[in-house]
Amino acid sequence: MGQKLKTVRLKSKHTQQQIADQCGISKSLLSKIENGQTSSAVATLSKISETLDVPLSWVLDGHPETDLAVLPKAEREISADDDNMGYSLELLANRSRFSRIEPTIVHVTPKDFNVRHEPYTHSQDEFIYIVEGAIELYYDGEKHYMEKGDTAHFKGVKPHLFMPVDNAGAKVLTVFIDD
């Protein structure tokens, strides 16, 4: 993932400092991400991918460009690089970097193990569908209880966070939508 970001950055003839400044992160953090020395929050990866003008899903998956996105269940991987993030991600499609949607399953960490309390922001709109369990969606300062079958659509630029309500955790189908 970091190597993909580095390759795109170099092709666009931008320095690490230029991209870091545009993303509001340190050059050191960007260097560590590019060199695979650290994992990063989706919000940070989203800012970097937006600055480099590539979809987040393209950054997160390692598959070639195609106009057909078939991904058998047995080949999907769950990324859980950092226990402190409060969730793990499961990409649902190998997509073209030019696609405008990013279908993902967010696995929300059980309540006793979730240490994430800071909301996220990113540039994409977001549609969510609760597949399993229940969450509290914190959105723009308000709390919304959501359970299996509930849906929401919101602007990613406003602070939001999925919080578990119990130790069963939750699965949330999330579709990021680029403008």
From TrEMBL:
<dbReference type="InterPro" id="IPR013096">
    <property type="entry name" value="Cupin_2"/>
</dbReference>
<keyword id="KW-0238">DNA-binding</keyword>
<dbReference type="GO" id="GO:0003700">
    <property type="term" value="F:DNA-binding transcription factor activity"/>
</dbReference>
<dbReference type="Pfam" id="PF01381">
    <property type="entry name" value="HTH_3"/>
</dbReference>
<dbReference type="InterPro" id="IPR010982">
    <property type="entry name" value="Lambda_DNA-bd_dom_sf"/>
</dbReference>
<dbReference type="GO" id="GO:0003677">
    <property type="term" value="F:DNA binding"/>
</dbReference>
<dbReference type="Pfam" id="PF07883">
    <property type="entry name" value="Cupin_2"/>
</dbReference>
<dbReference type="InterPro" id="IPR050807">
    <property type="entry name" value="TransReg_Diox_bact_type"/>
</dbReference>
<protein>
    <submittedName>
        <fullName>XRE family transcriptional regulator</fullName>
    </submittedName>
</protein>
<dbReference type="InterPro" id="IPR014710">
    <property type="entry name" value="RmlC-like_jellyroll"/>
</dbReference>
<feature type="domain" description="HTH cro/C1-type">
    <location>
        <begin position="5"/>
        <end position="59"/>
    </location>
</feature>
<dbReference type="InterPro" id="IPR011051">
    <property type="entry name" value="RmlC_Cupin_sf"/>
</dbReference>
<dbReference type="GO" id="GO:0005829">
    <property type="term" value="C:cytosol"/>
</dbReference>
<dbReference type="InterPro" id="IPR001387">
    <property type="entry name" value="Cro/C1-type_HTH"/>
</dbReference>
